[in-house]
Amino acid sequence: MHDKNILITGGTDGMGKATAHQLAKLGANLLLIGRNQTKGEAAAAEIIQASGNSSVAYLQADLSLVHNLPPLAEQIRQRFDQLDGLIHCAGGVFPPRRTLTSESVELSFAVQYLARHVLTQTLLDRLCASPRPQVLCLAGGGAAHKPLDMDNLMGEKRYSIMGAVQISSVTNNLLTLDWIEHYPGITFYNYGPGFVRTGMIARSPLPIRLMLNTVGRLFSRTPDQAANDIVGLLTGDLPGGFYEVGLRKNELSLDQATRAAFRRHTESLITRLAA
Hints:
Layout (H helix, E strand, L loop, with lengths): L4 E5 L4 H12 L3 E6 L2 H15 L4 E5 L8 H11 L5 E4 L18 H16 L1 H5 L5 E5 L22 H22 L4 E6 L13 H8 L9 H13 L5 E4 L3 E3 L5 H19 L1
Parallel strand pairs: 1-2, 1-4, 2-3, 4-5, 5-6, 6-7
Antiparallel strand pairs: 7-8
Helix pairs in contact: 1-2, 1-8, 4-6
């Protein structure tokens, strides 16, 4: 990874930050994206001090809003002529009640699906300028083999935290399959880390917090362990596709009709939000 340009959304905390630490030690030029300016600048400074790599920078952005993404992409272009790696780690546990952004998009859908779609599409020129571009999506629910209810993508009919995680996983599955099909020159990974002990646990609803802090500790992992897998995908010779804990590969396919319908829905939504 020496001298490769890597962008990490959600790179200021949890698995994104742990991944940034490892990549900085390998000599990568890192750009971290996060919402909290103070936290982001502190994370970049911490990584620089720990790694001895001064090529670590931070950009503030709220990824939940589509209209923020084109200006963010332009800032990224000004820093990088080519983008060798794009790691989508932004996400986490969202409020127990259904929450809409100022653009009227459900929060988890906005951050964990829509932002990934728009930011990757907007940065395709920089990715294609790299001789070996890679894009990795962190999927909280892994490669979920579940049907997609097109009428409940944003919790319109029913909402729960775990339901939102499942929807984000299935939509990321669809997105990864589309990317693999349409952009053969880019290697796309979808990685499910399992239960990971991050700072998000402290902000989870009480029942989930109790479960993760008790019996959940028997099968949960640390951010560093998840980062080991992420870095392993980026530095190894594994083909693109779907991976889980320990880099176990999953075979996943979803019917073309579902993918096409969801693609049309996404394109229509982005057009409306960008207007």
